[in-house]
Write a structure and sequence with these properties.
heterodimer, A: alpha+beta, Alpha-Beta Plaits, three-stranded mixed beta sheet, two-stranded antiparallel sheet, 9 strands, B: mainly alpha
Chain lengths: 245, 126
């Protein structure tokens, strides 16, 4: 059943790919330009909205540097059974009529109107002031309504006791989790682990920054190239945009 | 008069029983790790650490306020044993020792690390 679900999602995504033209992006631009860590004691700034622009034309098929970096950073096993947590996945898509192939990472889209937050019965799912959608695991009862509500299949449930706490993110059995946009790094003024890993591989497929700052590299790029948000018809206003699908 | 004697007899019996019991449960001897000056008065912390940490954790998780002084990671950084680099493990370890003595279940470490942040980063503990 979950395979069917995956298949449908992929078909949908590949149909979306037919609608937009691929746009190549000049290399050499700054990857991210959010300058500094927030001072201690200061709350997340509601004037900021963190987001990403993923350029599928720069994303290399078969490369999973972003996935490995996420797993290492957050202490995930890296296994891909249905009972394992996956915060970021690599998708390989093919357009049915033309045969055009694209490769892209898929994770929590950090919606401005997140359905996971709407359905959460305990207030555990929430959106931080700066647009990052998180699970407050102290309040999560593991009901998994949010997993059903998410149209991106972005969330995972921790089925087994967590014994390895080497990751930067606290994780525990019986709670739901997903991409935190590496909130612990962002608060220190450092880009998310996947962004760093992609740049290290020389691909620069993920641009991270403040969507609300007109001078930021990501805002400038979004103004100058055609980008799409996945399932824009749902009006969830995701913080992640894609180029080339 | 008879009831008075009965009461005294009962009290004597209670004292006889309670004396050895009280002596059997001695206060825990804790390995406080690096120790040093606590973020607040130790007596105050002993009574209130759970409230302070709960308050701060909500501010950190939900509002993103970082750098507060009552953090769980801060407790662990200073109080992890130098023997096993953890606040858990034996009844002498800082968190486990006191919680066993007080018979209070501790579930922080089902999700959080019981080892100092320095050790996780691959550097030797101070």
């Amino acid at each position: 059943m979950s395979c069917n679900h995956d298949q449908q999602r992929r078909q949908f995504l590949s149909r979306g790919a037919a609608l937009t033209a691929a746009v190549s992006i000049a290399p050499g631009l700054m990857l991210y330009d959010f300058a500094r860590a927030r001072p201690p004691g200061e709350a997340a700034n509601p004037a900021v909205r963190w987001g990403m622009l993923i350029d599928t034309t720069q994303c290399e098929s078969g490369c999973d540097a972003c996935v490995s970096a996420c797993n290492k950073e957050n202490g995930l096993s890296g296994r891909t059974l249905p009972t394992d947590s996956q915060w970021i996945r690599k998708l390989e898509l093919q357009q049915e009529d033309t045969g055009r192939k694209i490769s892209m990472p898929m994770m929590c889209q950090h919606c401005a109107e997140p359905p996971c937050v709407d359905v959460c019965p305990t207030g555990a799912s929430f959106k931080r002031a700066d647009g990052i959608v998180l699970v407050d695991k102290h309040r999560c009862i593991g009901c998994r309504y949010c997993m059903m509500a998410c149209p991106y299949k972005a969330r995972s449930f921790v089925h087994e006791p967590v014994t390895d706490h080497s990751g930067a993110t606290p994780r525990g059995q019986g709670t739901v989790e997903s991409c935190t946009l590496c909130v612990h790094r962002v608060d220190q003024g450092v880009a998310p682990a996947c962004v760093e890993a992609c740049a290290r591989e020389g691909h620069q497929a993920i641009l991270f920054g403040n969507l609300n700052d007109p001078k930021s590299a990501i805002a400038q790029r979004i103004r100058s190239v055609a980008s799409v948000k996945l399932r824009a018809d749902l009006n969830l206003d995701p913080g992640i945009s894609f180029v080339g699908i | 008069m008879q009831s008075g004697w009965t009461m005294i007899g009962r009290m004597a019996l209670l004292l006889a029983l309670a004396g050895p019991l009280a002596a059997a449960v001695s206060e825990p001897v804790l390995d406080i790790g690096q120790g040093g000056k606590c973020v607040d008065d130790p007596k105050f912390m002993r009574l209130n650490h759970m409230k302070l940490m709960r308050h701060q954790r909500d501010e950190t998780v939900r509002q993103g306020i970082r750098g507060g002084k009552y953090s769980l990671a801060g407790c662990v950084d200073c109080h992890a044993s130098k023997k096993n680099h953890s606040v858990l493990g034996t009844d002498q370890n800082f968190c486990q020792g006191c919680h066993v003595y007080a018979a209070v279940k501790i579930d922080c470490f089902e999700c959080h690390s019981s080892e100092p942040r320095r050790a996780l980063a691959g550097e030797p503990p101070k």
